[in-house]
Each structure stands twice: as C-alpha cells, then as structure tokens.
C-alpha cells in the first residue's frame, strides 16, 4: 500500500530534497508541497494525504496552528492526516504543543535520510515517533515546567485497570510494545490490545498523546 505524503516547509530546497528522497521509495507517493501552514492546510484538504511533514516555524501560519487545524478539523471535515513535525531545534515549545494537539511526533531536519524515510513509515502505520531520546527529553522538560493537571486527569486515570495503568506508564517511559511485553511478561499482541484500550478509554489519538497525558497527569514524573 502506498503512503501519500505532502511536505509543508518555507524553504524550497528543503521541500525539494525531502520530496526527491521520499518519491524514490516505492511505497511512498509525494502528492504535493506547500510553503506555509495556511497553504499546507488547504493542500491537505484537497489531496487527502496519509502523512503531512510539517515545519514548525513558517510565515503566514506556523506549523503549530496548521497542525491544530488538520488534527482538530471544523465540523464536516472528516479527513485527519498523521502529522510529523520538522524542526531544526531539539527542544521547542511549539513542538510540545503540537504533540498535545495530536501530532504523531517530530524529526530534526538534519536527521539522516534513512531516519526520514523510516519516520514516515512509522507514522503512516499509526504509531508515534517517540523512539529518539530527544523526544522524551522534550516532553519531560516541558512537563516539568507545567503543574500536573491532576484534577482534570485523575478521573480519567481511574477508568483504567491496574494493568492498563502499568502499560501507560511504560509507554510514557519510551518503551516499545516488545519491551513492554518483556517487562510485564506478556505476549506482544496482548500489549497492543492494552495500548489500544488505553487510547480508547482516555480518548487519545496515539502514543504521543498518551506520553503527554502521563506526564501532565502526574502518573510519570520527569526524570524517572
């Protein structure tokens, strides 16, 4: 199955380079490019991509606002792509807010080409790009600066079983399904089922939002 991608970045050379790299993959189809967030949103509405590569800082409309419009569309708009944020900074408040809005992760612009290709495939598959240690540090750094919204999230946490709470904790610590399976001595498919139930019960889009929720609720503390 081919993954449809659009690239939103204000630097023409970046767009061209990413487009050439991704278009060379047999399972990825670059269906459009845009130089700012506003045009990126409009392009996404027209082309219905699976994944949007979204630069954080752009004129007219930045990547954060564009991501919000794509991930929290107006009534009547049914298409919601996966959004992968692109940034030149490894810690950026905009990126954290994008994760809270539902972005599936972020990637540094100077990452190796193989990482970009792998990131698109990971996000397209429905997973979140949380493996790089920089992502965990970013979430921890900004969660540390914000008081945990315990009152708001406490009731939602109570809806989880003890096992689901354990799984959410390990997801927030950056463990993959395979690693969680080893830690809890479970089958990996069982872990996938638990993760799916956690996302459904907490009304979260993917693992990225689950990590943010775990930090902000106080379930996991920065530095643990």
Structure write-up:
The protein has helices at 12-23, 37-47, 63-71, 93-101, 113-124, 133-144, 150-158, 162-172, 177-184, 188-202, 207-217; strands at residues 3-8, 28-34, 51-55, 82-87, 106-108. The relative contact order is 0.11. It is 53% helix and 12% strand. The protein is globular and about 50 Å long. It has eleven helices and five strands; from the N terminus they run E-H-E-H-E-H-E-H-E-H-H-H-H-H-H-H. The chain is an alpha/beta fold. The chain has a five-stranded parallel β-sheet, sandwiched between helices.
In helices, the fraction of residues equals 40-55%
The overall pLDDT average reads 85
Number of strands: 5
- pLDDT < 50 runs, ≥5 residues: none
Order of SSEs = EHEHEHEHEHHHHHHH
N-to-C span: 39 Å
Number of helices: 11
**Main beta-sheet annotation:** 5 strands, parallel
**How would you write the strand order of the largest sheet?**
2-1-3-4-5
Portion in strands: 5-15%
User: What is the radius of gyration computed over CA atoms, rounded to a whole number of angstroms?
Assistant: 17 Å
> Helices and strands: which structural class?
alpha/beta
Shape: globular
Secondary structure blueprint with pairings:
Blueprint: E1 3-8, H1 12-23, E2 28-34, H2 37-47, E3 51-55, H3 63-71, E4 82-87, H4 93-101, E5 106-108, H5 113-124, H6 133-144, H7 150-158, H8 162-172, H9 177-184, H10 188-202, H11 207-217
Helix pairs in contact: 2-3, 3-4, 6-11, 8-10, 8-11, 9-10
